[in-house]
Design brief:
Strand content: 15-25%
Structural class: alpha/beta
Number of domains: 1
Strand order of the largest sheet: 1-2-4-3-5-6-9-10
Number of strands: 10
CATH superfamily: Alpha/Beta hydrolase fold, catalytic domain
Radius of gyration: 18 Å
Shape: globular
């Protein structure tokens, strides 16, 4: 991991859905007066802390903002779980950017966070000027979606953090090789203490819309027009063994629409964690390129 730097400030912003108001928490690194903003958005069941190493590495050049997407981490849970879908998340991010008074941003999104960024970047007058999509694209493999659906919404209780870590290591094995300290970090940030047990730090009701959808529909060939509408520079990172973003889709993303730059990270599946210096260097070079 990268060397230590000042701790982030924890903030939140009030957002709205048809079901009412909710608060989205976020972590902010770097100079709050810096008009160069980098937004980092995590995957389906992860949290903002996933970007601690990347944020530390980028805070010398950016105001780095890492939200807990609603239903995860420190953010509120939604009253209507059917609203745990991309339109809600995109709306929340627009509200966040208004709070930050950020007219333009750079965006790093992992998995679900990549899809949120892709949708926002496809809109006319999008604030996104540079976009990294980490292991997600316009077509998502049906078998991979079924794998994810099999564990989203489960509510296991772990007697010790060691038991919790064993579960995370199993579910997140595609993240690739990590040290024991990194696995403990990846575990602690997605767990919370609930009485006498450790539980996952997200709303199990995330599974309601996810499991209600037809996996064939979720494979989302209709997202190609959105991808094709993106006008900013794009980097698409794929884990070599990813089962969510296929090599064929990855290659096509380099050939159409914004004609993204393509990087494949060896020895990793879904998804690269960007905890390591070599991965962080990929993001830094692309984001800071003149």
């Amino acid at each position: 991991m990268t060397s230590a730097s000042p701790a982030p400030i924890l903030r939140d912003v009030q957002c709205v859905t048809p079901a009412g108001l909710h608060r989205m928490a976020y972590r902010e690194w770097g100079d709050a007066d810096n008009d160069r903003v980098l937004v980092c958005v995590h995957g389906l069941t992860r949290v903002s802390n996933d970007f601690d190493a990347l944020a530390r590495a980028m805070a010398d050049r950016y105001r780095v903002v890492c939200p807990d997407v609603v239903g995860r981490g420190r953010s509120d849970r939604l009253r209507n779980p059917m609203l745990y879908q991309l339109p809600t998340y995109v709306g929340d991010m627009v509200t966040l950017l208004a709070r930050l008074d950020a007219r333009t941003v750079h965006w790093f999104g992992t998995s679900m966070g990549a899809l949120i960024g892709m949708l926002l970047a496809s809109l006319a007058d999008s604030p996104i000027e540079r976009l990294i999509l980490n292991d997600a694209g316009p077509v998502l493999d049906v078998a991979a979606l079924a794998r994810i659906a099999a564990y989203v919404g489960e509510t296991p209780r772990f007697a010790t953090i060691e038991e919790a870590e064993a579960s995370v290591r199993q579910l997140a094995a595609p993240f690739g090789p990590h040290t024991d300290a990194e696995w403990r970090f990846l575990t602690e940030i997605v767990m919370r203490h609930d009485g006498d047990a450790w539980v996952r730090h997200y709303d199990p009701a995330l599974a309601v819309p996810f499991k209600a959808a037809d996996p064939a529909t979720q494979s989302a060939a209709t997202l190609w027009p959105l991808y094709d509408a993106i006008r900013c520079p794009v980097l698409v990172v794929r884990g070599e063994h990813s089962d969510l973003l296929t090599a064929a889709t990855h290659a096509e993303m380099g050939a159409r629409g914004p004609k993204a730059e393509l990087v494949t990270i060896a020895g990793v599946g879904h998804a690269p964690t960007f905890l390591h210096d070599d991965q962080i260097a990929i993001a830094r070079e692309f984001l800071l390129r003149e």
